[in-house]
Amino acid sequence: MAPEFVLETRGLTKEFRGFTAVDSVDLRVQQGHIHALIGPNGAGKTTVFNLLTKFLTPTRGEILYFGKPITAMKSNEIARLGLVRSFQISAVFGHMSVRDNVRVALQRQQGNSFHFWKSARCLDELNERADQLLAEVDLLGFADTLTIELPYGRKRALELATTLALDPKVLLLDEPTQGMGHEDVDMVVGLVRRAAVGRTVVMVEHNLSVVSRLCDRITVLARGAILAEGDYAAMSAHPQVREAYLGSEAAALEEAHA
């Protein structure tokens, strides 16, 4: 029998020298959903995300992936299982072409190491798949461009392509639209929606308009604990959620839902 949840935490807790940053979080992510973690500043979103991707070790609690415990595994080990994180930092090589960045990621997915001194012909067999991935994120026309020359929004698209090259089952996106103008935000929303086909996505995102447009389910954190959970309509009307956001952020919740 298949597990009900793709990704689940039970009593997930993280303490830093007596300060509880994440407090007994029970998160349940359903297969095929785009699931957002939101909350006011200091709510513990980033810490939960770092625990899920094993950049931090929990003080207590358990993390399950397709019903199997992964709490003791390292970040590179869970990535090989298909739980892959993107948009944490720039993960592309600026002085390589856009296509070469994707080919390197594809070689990683095959379990091989990339050696800069080898002939480019060693990677030519990966061109077809690389170009397919670039087409998915609307970058095929930039394939031979040096990555350093790409506009910011296009670099984020390339990061998504290199992540998809690792063939993720669950894609973890860390603030995918951070620092973007409206045009780039719209582009990335479309890319995430496309990347989510046949996959599960978990994202931390401050832009509530993006959350309202993309997400099937939302977990709202406050002071390290789950405050509420549901779809965007329910969360934007939830009195405790609105109180937690206060002022302009509460107005943004309502505006995004309008």
Automatic annotation (TrEMBL):
Pfam families: ABC_tran (PF00005), BCA_ABC_TP_C (PF12399)
InterPro entries: AAA+_ATPase, ABC_AA/LPS_Transport, ABC_transporter-like_ATP-bd, BCA_ABC_TP_C, P-loop_NTPase
CDD domains: ABC_Mj1267_LivG_branched (cd03219)
GO CC annotation: plasma membrane
Keywords from the UniProt entry: ATP-binding, Nucleotide-binding, Transport
GO MF annotation terms: ATP binding; ATP hydrolysis activity
Gene3D superfamilies per UniProt: P-loop containing nucleotide triphosphate hydrolases (3.40.50.300)
Domain ABC transporter, first and last residues per copy: 7-248
SUPFAM superfamilies for this protein: P-loop containing nucleoside triphosphate hydrolases
Coiled coil: none
Name by which UniProt lists this protein: Branched-chain amino acid transport system ATP-binding protein
Species the sequence originates in: Pseudomonas linyingensis
